[in-house]
Protein 1
Amino acid sequence: MAIFETEALVLRTYNLAEADKIVVCLSRSAGLIRGVAKGCRKLRNRFGASLEPFTLINLTYYEKENKELVSFSQTEILRSRFNLSGNASILTGFSYMGDLLIDFSPPHQANDNLYRMALACFEAASESPPDLESVLRYFEVWLLKIEGFLPDLRACANCHRVFSEETIYLGNDLSLRCAECSGSRGTAVSKRLHAQLRATEKLPPAKFAEEAREVASETKKQMAELTFQMIGRVLERMPRIRPNV
Ligand SMILES: [Zn+2]
């Protein structure tokens, strides 16, 4: 039996037997982990409130050979989201991000870029709840990018010409093409929407969300439709939760 310690973000929990829970979390050093927290539903237990979803913890766990579930041994709260527990839209948004992280992350595979991006997005929305929607868009674009599904936003996938001020088109194969190469078929990506997509590549989530306050609601709506469509295509189904669209 091996023992490990890592920082981790609690994403989802399920009740197990009478007093236990299965906890799914994204960890810094081991990626997606599913573990059993024994006795955590008893009144006085060693885990306290640390296993509430979206809490950032320091986690110690045991791994048994040939077992998919690890055993949680100790937790310590690094950042609680207790202050947001009454904010329904934040909780829906967080559940949505949690679901996508679970859907997109292979178990036990550390991905530092994904971990840091996710943490920054949870943090940005916690710090400024009214910016949730823009943070979710940022999260979706970066999740697609880190997992290798985001098309090249810079140039046409066919003729490699760098996009300038023009409407471009997203094809069924998740590639972006200029009007000429695509024959204007596919989902139109307006110049403003394209600028928003490019902005995610240049800015951290809090800054992106701050600047997005000035962006027209029509463009934001188009962005939500586009990212939702891309994620649906990658998952080959619609996400379980669809917040604020
Ligand atoms: Zn082209």
Protein 2
Amino acid sequence: MLPFKLVYSEKYFLPIGEHVFRADKYRLIRERLFLQGAVEDSDFLEPRPASESDLMLVHSPHYVNKLMEGSLTAREELQMEIPYSPQVVDTFMLHAGGSILAAECALADGVGVNIGGGFHHAFPDHGEGFCMIHDVAVAIRSLQKRKLIQRAMTVDCDVHQGNGTAAIFGHTGHNPTTLPSWSAPELGAPRAGVSVSQGPCKDVFTISLHQENNYPFVKPPSSIDVNLPDGCSDTEYLAWLDNALSSGLRQFEPDLICYVAGADPFREDQLGGLNLTLDGLTQRDELVFRAARARTIPVMVTLAGGYASKVEDTVTIHTNTILAAAEVFRAAHASPSP
Ligand SMILES: [Zn+2]
């Protein structure tokens, strides 16, 4: 039995046909967890779909109406890069409900994992990049509205920048600076091609580590953006993540961390150009979970992208994220009380 809950539904499968986005990955992750003997039925919770009013905490009424009525223009549907259907809308609403539930579980148990979600390219008034509804933002705004949290931090480790997240939690200005620990000895000299920018933040602090030379080509400013060069290695990636996390958590004390654990920084991803190994990705997960655990900040996890040439690799990476959380937080539960 896990020391936290996994939120999952068989209805997470997105009916989008033959697609680089393997929407069967959610089911395969659940199967893998059982195959490895890592979970039992009682570890799982079934989500309810987010409501239209939940969606409107983030998305414009005009956009939500278009989704409900099926009145997106051909251009808007193209930008989404997945076919529109009422069933697809229902599925995204279920993933958003799953993220709300996972965030509630995180507050109760220290961690909550949605085996879905992470649709970080959805904007208030449109969807893009396979993302229709920004489930993570909906979860944050829902918890804030119910006064369960005041401040949240997103830690986005998908290979693509969290442009929707940055736009939703918007920043009025962009004031590029280097991170305070830029010259930390473990990093050595910053490699040419890595740039870091930092903007002001309101009630949600957004961190994104991503490949600079990749979609989205216009990157609205996050609180911290780490623009990584093509082919970035495990060592370099982990050093930057450590740096960004420490810097963010020095400046901002969130009540909840929302970890967007994309599998696409993997070296064999079809839509990514970084060079992370399976082991490096597990170390990435552990780094995020340890940083949260050390400060007793609850963590909500969503899966986001993953387009490895072999779907088994994508499933392994996402499964490993859940196992890493179990490892880090089981150790926390087992610590002797003073
Ligand atoms: Zn991605």
